[in-house]
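Notes from the pairing session

We agreed to fold both candidates in a single pass and log them together. This is the raw record for the first candidate, unedited. Please don't reformat it; downstream parsing expects exactly this layout.

Candidate A
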Amino acid sequence: MSNAPQKASIENTQLKDIVSHAKEYGFVFPSSEIYDGLAAVYDYGPNGVELKNNLKRLWWQAMTQLHQNVVGIDAAIFMAPQTWVASGHVAGFNDPLVDNLDSKKRYRADVLVEDKAAEYEAAGQQDRAADLLATLGRLLTDNDLAGVKELIVSEKIVCPISGTCNWTDVRQFNLMYSTQGSAVEGDAAQIYLRPETAQGIFVNFLNVQKSARQKVPFGIAQIGKAFRNEIVARQFIFRMREFEQMEMQFFVRPGTEEEWYNNWKQARRRFHEAVGLAPEKLRFHDHDKLAHYAKAAVDIEYEFPFGFKEIEGIHSRSDFDLTQHQELSRKKQQYFDNDVNPETGKPYGNYVPYVVETSVGADRLFLATLCQAYQEETITEGEGEKEQTKTRTFLKLHPALAPIKAAIFPLVKKDGMPEKAEEIFNSLRFDFPVIMEERDAIGKRYTRQDLIGTPFCIVVDGQTLEDETVTVRHRDSREQTRMPISELRAYIGQAVSFARIFEKL
C-alpha cells in the first residue's frame, strides 16, 4: 500500500508552517493584506528583504567579482515593442486556459491535467499518471487545444469550486502585461512589462562588448524584475506575477558552446550547494523537448515541501536571440574575432556569437534557502526533576546570508550592563547588521533570534564589567564561548564573510 497520501499531507503541513513562520517573523507578507491581498503578489518584510538582498549580492559578486570576463548591466523594464516580436514572446508566450461555466473561474488547462496526474501518483497509479502527462505533452506540442479539452472531459476533471465538468473550449492566453507607451491614450503603441530580463542583455550586447572592452567568451549579468500574468500562481512565492530574475548570458564562439554549457551547468550546481542547499535535495532535470533554437537545456531542481521544482535553468541558446534582433532591427550583431583558427591559420573573423544562459529566480532561491534553513529539533533542558523535553525551531542560515549577524543582550537592565551592551552595539554596527535587545528573559531573547536565523548572540553580564569579556552563544549548537570584546569584530567578520561561500565554488 502506498504511503504517498500521508507523505503529501506531511509536505503540505511543512509548507504551511514555513509560510506562517515567514509572515510572523518578518520575512514575507501577502501584498496589500489590509485589502484582503492580491493573488500571487507578496511583499518582503524587514528580515526577508535582508535575506533576499544577501542572496542577490552573493550571486552578483560570484558572477562579476570571481569572473574577469563577466560584467553587469541594469536594463530598463520598458523596451521597444519590437523587442518582444523578435524574441517570439508576442506570438508564442502563451498558456492554455479554460473557464468553468458554472463557477465562472478560469484555470490553466495543463495544470488541471497535471493535478489529476498527481492524484493518480498519490494513489499509487504511477503508470496511469505517466500516460496522462505524456498525452498532455503531445497535445500541447501539436497545439491541439480541442484535444486538451477532450482529455479534461474524459478524465472527469471537475472545477474545484462548482464541482462540475461544464468547461468552455481551451484557448491560448498571452502572459505579458501590456500598457500604453504614452500618457495620452491612443498616441503611442502598446508596450509591455518585460516577461524576462534576458532581452535587455541581448539588445545591449555590442554596447557592453565595446565599452567594457570584452573579448568572446564573455558574459553579461543582470538582476531585475520581470512580470508574467500567471492565471494559476501557487505554492507561496514559488510562482508569482511580479518576480525577480538573476540572469547571465555568456557569449561564446560557435563550436565551443557545448563545453561552456557543461562548465556552467556544474558551476551553478556548486553555487547552490555552497549557499547551503543540501546536495541530496538538488538534481538536474534535462529537458526532453527543446525549443527549436536550443541545443541543450537543463533545470537545477530543489526538493521543496511540494516536490522537486526548478530554481535555475541553464540553456544553450545557439545564436537565435542575436540573429533575431539583427534581422528585425537591421543592425548587425556580429563580433570580429581576431584569434587565429588553428584549422585555417586565419582569424575567425565576423560571426554572431552563440549564447549559454544561466537564469535563477531570486524569489525561488529565497524560498529554497528558507525551506532548507527551517529546522525543528527535540532538545532537553534543565536537570533532574526540572528536566524537560521540547521542540526547538530555528533557521539554520549560512551566517553570510543571515539578516542579522549578531544580537547584543545585557543580562539584566541594571548595573551598567545596558550601557556596556550599547557600547558594543555601536562598535559593531558600522561593519555588520546587529541589534540590541533588553526585553524579556534571556532564554526568550535567544529563541527570538533563533527564529530569524541570527548566528551569534552576545551577552553582557557582571563579568564583562570586570574583564571586558562577553559570552557568545552559537545558534546551531547552542554552545557558549567566552571571548574578549576586542576580538568580536574579527570573529564575526570571519564567519559572515562571503569568502566562506566563495571558497566552495
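Candidate B (folded immediately after A)
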Amino acid sequence: MKGSLLIAGTTSDAGKSIVVAGLCRWLRRQGVSVAPFKAQNMSLNSMVTADGAEIGRAQVMQAQAAGIEPTAHLNPILLKPGSDRRSQVVVRGRPVADVDAVQYRDHRDHLREVALESYHELRSRHDVVVCEGAGSPTEINLRRGDIANMGLARAAGLPVLVVGDIDRGGVFAALYGTVALLEPADQELVSGFVINKFRGAPELLAPGLEQLRALTGRPTVGVLPWLDGLWLDVEDSLGLSAARPATGLPHGEETLRVAVLRFPRISNFTDLDALACEPGVSVSYVTSPGELAGADLVVLPGTRATVSDLAWLRENGFEEALRRTDRPVLGVCGGYQMLAETIHDDVESRRGEVAGLGLLPVTVRFAPDKVLARPVGAHYGQTVHGYEIHHGRAERHGGEPFLDGCRAGAVFGTTWHGALENDGFRRAFLSEVAELAGRRFTPAPDTDFAALRERQLDALGDLVAAHLDGEAVERLITRGAPPDLPALPPGGAPHQPLS
C-alpha cells in the first residue's frame, strides 16, 4: 500500500487527530510504514523531539501510534498564540517570528513551500502519509492562504475524508455544508465522510447517511462510536472539556485532590494526565479561588503568556488564596516563573520588571532565544526524563533544588514538562504531597503511564478496524479521489428526491 490521505473536519475538535492516530495504528498493524503529517498547527500543547525541534503534541502522539520517532517534518509549521491577535511562528521546530494575522500573510508563500517540502520528505521515507487538516476547510475567509486543508490537498493531489462530530448536533448540515461551501476544484477531492462520537441506534442513523449520499454523491466510510474513557494528547484547551484520564479508587485510605489553574493561555496541560491516571487522584481545572477549597495540591501549569496570565491570576483573586493555603503548590514552566520573586520580561510581554508571587526565592529573566531540550536528571532517587520549552531563565538564590528548579517548604517549581510521566518520580512526589497535606493516601505501586497511553492507541486502532470501511480507505490512499464526484452548487443541492 502506497499513497496519502487528508483527514479534514467540520470544526476544530471534531476528531481529526483521533482519526489520524487510529489510522496510523491500523496501518502499522498491517506492516505498512506510515507517518502522520500536519502542515500547520495552531496549538499551545507542544513537545520537543529527540533532535531538539518543537512540534505539536498531537503529532508526537500520532507518531507513537505509527511506531516512528517524531521529527520536525511531521509538523513543519506551528503557531503558538500569545494573545488573541499575535502568535509565535515555529518553523521546522524553531521559532522564527512573532506576528499578527495580517503580518502572517507575508510569510505564507514561503511557509507553503516549507510544508510541501516536509510532506514530500515524508512520502519519500514512508509507504503512507496520513495528513491532518486544521480547523475546518470551509473557513472561506482564509482559503486563499490555506496550506493545511484544501490548499495542501490541491497541491499534493490528496483525497479528503471529512470528519463530523455528531455529539455536537447538526452533523448532517455540517458535512453537507462543508462540501457545498468549497469551490469546484476543492470539491473534486472530498471523497467521503466519517461520523465521530456516535451514541445511539445505528438503524436510526442509516436513513440520514443514505440521504447525505444522495445529496452529495459521497459515501460515509465509517461511523465511530463514542468511546468512554478516551484521552490522548490534544492540541488546545478545547480538549479540557472532553474526558481526561479517569480516576480510580484510592490505593490508600483517602483521595488526593488536585486543582489546576486554567490560565487563558494554558499550555502543555497534558503534564497533568499522568496524575489523573493514578488511582485515587482527582484532577480538576479551576477558574475561581473558591474552587481551591479542599485541594491537597494546587498546580500552576505551563502558559504561553506568563506575565499576562499572572495578571489574570491576580485579577481573579488567586494570589491571596495561594498565599493563604497551607497545602502544597507546584509550578511547571510558566507556572514556576509566576512563583518567582521577580520576572524581567522584555521578550514575551515586553513589560519589563514585574513582581512575581514571591513564593519561591527565584528571579526569572526572559531571553530572546528559546530553550528547547530533552533533559534527564534524578530526584527522590528516581531517574527523570522531561522536556523544556521556554524563554524565561530561572535563577535560584535560596531554597532547595527540585529537578532543575526550586523548592521552598511546600512550594515546588520546575521548567521540566513531562516529569510526572516518570512513574517512580510521580509516586514519590505524590507521597510527599500527601504527607504535607495530611492525607492518608498511598500511590498505587504498579501504575504504568506509558503502558496506559499505549493501550489508548490500541483502542483507536481497534476502533478504526471495526468501524471504518478499510477497503474504501485503502482505495482512497492508493488510487486517490474518485474521478466522478459530483459538484454541489453553492447554497443548494442537486435536485434529487429525499424519499
